[in-house]
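Hi everyone,

Forwarding the result from last night's run.
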Amino acid sequence: MAVYTDVDDEALAAFLTEYGLGEVLSFKGIVEGVENSNYLLETSRGRYILTLFEKRVAEADLPFFVGLLDHLALNGLSCPTPIHGRDGRALRRLAGRPAIVVSFLTGVSPRRPDVRQCASLGRVLAALHEAGRGFAMPRANALSLDGWRRLAAQTRAGADTVRAGLAQAIDDELAALGRLWPGDLPQGIIHGDLFPDNVFFVGGDVSGVIDFYFACNDALAYDLAVCLNAWCFEPDGAFNATKARALARAYDAARPLAPAERRALPVLCRGAALRFLLTRLYDWVNQVPGAMVRPKDPLEYLIKLRFHQGATGAGTYGLD
């Protein structure tokens, strides 16, 4: 979450006339994140999140996201629920951007997840995949192999200013993944971006999952690979095998992984590491003037990629 687009009081008041949300008590920007402009909206009837979608989110994809959130909430997942206006619509425009109001979820995102939280995440990730069953609207993953190739081309000129030899390292990994990437794994709706700041906890248990704007249809085990990257490395880059074991085994207990998914896990983890290396690299070399957020270090994911390149199988991640 972040703030790129300013919303003035007059525009906000006109926008909210379409809803029955009561009197506005407070309205403030949320600085964290890199994708959209987000505001915490508190009214006499409750707390909400107002999101303005910035350029990286294609407007044509927004009905998919709104429909998915409605579907997941209906099927028992604790996630933001779109607020529909008096006319039944959830999507509108505000300050020149597509915009949506969603319910507010309670809980705290962990800065350094512990083992119990990783296990809870594994169970909830499996529940998310189950809740997504039956959602009929398709959306391809724009950040899989072809998307990584486009990002590599767009960042090649600036990559070596971040680290010497980075452009070649990316090209080499893309070539390897082009040969190794599996195409026959169980598919479904994935979150695609399930970092700790997109998960809320009360104590050691997940209380809600947010930020579904990379959700798409893809290999379910790829979502697990994203989480292993995002949750199971320490700030110094060291892999935490205990956290990985807790996360992977909790997921596997709730949705048993097929043999092909287990075999593919190291390659899927490599792909997930490359995906975040490239998107962070793109943000690093194309910083938005005036944005209230600093791009994240892409080299964190180069370290993780090197680890996964040395993985010998699913046992590396705690799966026997």
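The chain has a mean pLDDT of 94.

Cheers,
N.
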